[in-house]
Amino acid sequence: xxxxxxxxxxxxxxxxxxxxxxxxxxxxxxxxxxxxxxxxxxxxxxxxxxxxxxxxxxxxxxxxxxxxxxxxxxxxxxxxxxxxxxxxxxxxxxxxxxxxxxxxxxxxxxx
Amino acid sequence: xxxxxxxxxxxxxxxxxxxxxxxxxxxxxxxxxxxxxxxxxxxxxxxxxxxxxxxxxxxxxxxxxxxxxxxxxxxxxxxxxxxxxxxxxxxxxxxxxxxxxxxxxxxxxxxxxx
Lengths: 111, 114
Description:
The complex is a heterodimer.
Chain A (H helix, E strand, L loop, with lengths): L9 E5 L4 E6 L7 E7 L6 E7 L4 E3 L3 E6 L4 E6 L8 E9 L3 E4 L3 E6 L1
Parallel strand pairs in A: 1-10
Antiparallel strand pairs in A: 2-7, 3-4, 3-8, 5-6, 6-7, 8-9, 8-10
Chain B lengths: L4 E3 L2 E4 L5 E6 L6 E7 L5 E8 L2 E4 L8 E4 L6 E5 L8 E8 L8 E2 L3 E5 L1
Parallel strand pairs in B: 2-11
Antiparallel strand pairs in B: 1-3, 3-8, 4-5, 4-9, 5-6, 7-8, 9-10, 9-11
């Protein structure tokens, strides 16, 4: 479904460790995927995107992996910092232009 | 280059009143999306517009809600006869080339219905 869920799952990570946030999507025809970060009281902020003709894309400290066989997307954050604390959403493009968000994961950093 | 601008930042309405939420996309962007977010939940797609056209309104309630993006001026999300269940954060996003490029989000409008 679209962005359902009463409670966000939480991932707790030690500062300096790597974080891996997972996302499953349902539409095998989706050809564009995006990861967003949302801090409290703010709008979502673009992190990284990937098209379906790729299986990996790297940015600064972040890597997105796409497995089309099992319809799975992951975001890896290297050397997690306190400023990475936020809710992370994956989003997929459905049809010509509709962008649908997943339910989100809250990332919590332990000092 | 200013980002996506939404106003007001906070809007309080009593039941039965009308709420008008405004969104000015990034300069050069002609594609606008509206999303609704409840606390501790994801963003739910409402409507996608291009200048003067509604492209996809499949996420918008059939009654009381409407959206427009005129040739001149901001996009407007209008909620008539608000009810308490309309209380939520409403986010607007814009893109250069709808669906092919990343969306840039505004800071949202927090609507509270008393």
